[in-house]
């Protein structure tokens, strides 16, 4: 599958939080030895004697009752008899491969970018330190999805490959890597139902580097910031209507009414035009329906990689008649983009939902915003 198609699918997935499995619920187990996540539903952490058990739950779209268990031991520790035959990792990790640039955002927050030896999608990188590593050949491109360079991965001898799955076909990739003696850990943060839940996966990564305390601190700080920003617009009387997205091959994939993006818009004091939709998944909408609803939109955000109104008109000249365009209220999340097509919104934004929310408040309610500069958004002129 071409890289650009994969990137589009992932972007839609991030917006839509493409999982509606009711069984994937947040852990509320507070027994001794458990560290339940406060927001995330896709992983659990259990402390068992000298080791930790991490469980990843349904880590791809439409997955049901699939769990992957990873056991973490401190380097130098002897593997307990009960863990023979299990996936055991000795921590802290020293060398890893990341198959998603969102993983880079988590490792950067933990101060562990030096452990990255390989990655997928180097052309779409935003992080300057990692880009430098790629340019100096210290970090190698390992291909993407079905085009993985298995020979390169074997040569790098990573402690682990952090991977993700769009569908169940990821199992074939995992089995191939296992056959080659390469350990794999599945990461499903993009399937979470809220921005804070996605960000809480930093605790998952923190376990592999024995930086649990730092991960907790980073998350609690951003959560406090997020809630404070959300509080500034909690009582606003006027909530502007918001259109999102752009058509892709004549289909407009709209974020579901219960998606991450819908949550962000609501928390920022806006009204998502499809907020009544019950799905967390992105869903196709006809152009006719979009134009009908867009006539009510005060703002238009997240319009693909568009950088100017002229580029927007190239998609469809009818856009010129939309109120958001006429009033110059079109904003895109590509302020921190690269010439190669990378966008830091999808990279560091996963661990900075508070900054994304701050941008949206500045757009929808500038009179309440205390920040003078945008972090990820900019006006489309």
Describe this structure in words.
- The structure is a single chain.
- The strands form 4 sheets. Strands 7-6-5-8-9 form a 5-stranded parallel β-sheet, with helices on both faces.
- It has 13 helices and 16 strands.
- The protein has 2 domains: 222 residues, 3-Layer(aba) Sandwich (Rossmann fold), CATH 3.40.50; 147 residues, Rossmann fold (3-Layer(aba) Sandwich), CATH 3.40.50.
Quickly count the helices: 13
If strands are numbered along the chain, what order do they take across the biggest sheet?
Answer: 7-6-5-8-9
Query: What is the level-2 CATH architecture name of the largest domain?
Result: 3-Layer(aba) Sandwich
Report how far apart the termini are.
Answer: 33 Å
- Mass-distribution shape: globular
Summarize the biggest pleated sheet.
5 strands, parallel
Query: Regions with pLDDT < 50 over 5+ consecutive residues?
Result: 1-10, 12-23, 26-32
Q: Please tally the β strands and state the result.
A: 16
CATH superfamily of the largest domain: Nitrogenase molybdenum iron protein domain
Could you tell me the CATH topology label of the largest domain.
Rossmann fold
N to C succession of SSEs:
HEEEEEHEHEHEHEHHHEEHEEHEHHEHE
> At the first level of CATH, what is the class of the largest domain?
Alpha Beta
The count of domains is: 2
């Amino acid at each position: 599958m071409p890289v650009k198609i994969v990137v589009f699918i992932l972007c839609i997935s991030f917006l839509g939080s493409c999982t509606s499995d009711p069984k994937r619920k947040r852990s509320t187990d507070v027994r001794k030895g458990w560290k339940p996540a406060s927001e995330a539903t896709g992983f659990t952490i259990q402390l068992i004697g000298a080791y930790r058990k991490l469980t990843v739950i349904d880590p791809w779209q439409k997955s049901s009752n699939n769990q992957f268990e990873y056991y973490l031991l401190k380097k130098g520790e002897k593997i307990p008899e009960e863990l023979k035959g299990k996936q055991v990792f000795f921590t802290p990790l020293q060398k890893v491969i990341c198959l998603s640039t969102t993983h880079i955002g988590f490792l950067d927050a933990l101060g562990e970018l030096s452990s990255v030896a390989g990655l997928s999608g180097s052309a779409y990188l935003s992080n300057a330190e990692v880009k430098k590593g790629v340019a100096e050949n210290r970090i190698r491109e390992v291909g993407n999805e079905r085009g993985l360079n298995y020979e390169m991965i074997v040569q790098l001898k990573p402690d682990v490959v952090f991977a993700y799955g769009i569908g169940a076909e990821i199992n074939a990739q995992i089995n191939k890597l296992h056959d080659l003696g390469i350990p794999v850990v599945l990461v499903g943060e993009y399937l979470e139902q809220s921005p804070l839940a996605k960000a809480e996966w930093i605790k998952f990564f923190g376990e592999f580097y024995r930086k649990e305390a730092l991960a907790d601190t980073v998350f609690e700080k951003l959560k406090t910031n997020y809630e404070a920003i959300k509080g500034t617009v909690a009582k606003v009387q006027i909530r502007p209507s918001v259109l999102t997205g752009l058509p892709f091959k004549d289909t407009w994939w709209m974020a579901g009414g219960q998606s991450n993006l819908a949550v962000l818009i609501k928390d920022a004091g806006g009204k998502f035009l499809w907020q009544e939709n019950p799905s967390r998944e992105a869903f196709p909408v006809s152009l006719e329906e979009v134009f009908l609803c867009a006539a009510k939109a005060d703002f238009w955000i997240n319009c693909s990689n568009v950088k100017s109104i002229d580029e927007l008109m190239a998609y469809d000249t009818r856009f010129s008649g939309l109120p958001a365009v006429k009033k110059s209220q079109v904003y895109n999340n590509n302020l921190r983009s690269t010439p190669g097509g990378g966008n830091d919104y999808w990279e560091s934004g996963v661990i900075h939902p508070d900054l994304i929310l701050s941008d949206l408040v500045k757009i929808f309610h500038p009179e309440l915003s205390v920040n003078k500069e945008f972090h990820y958004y900019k006006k489309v002129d």
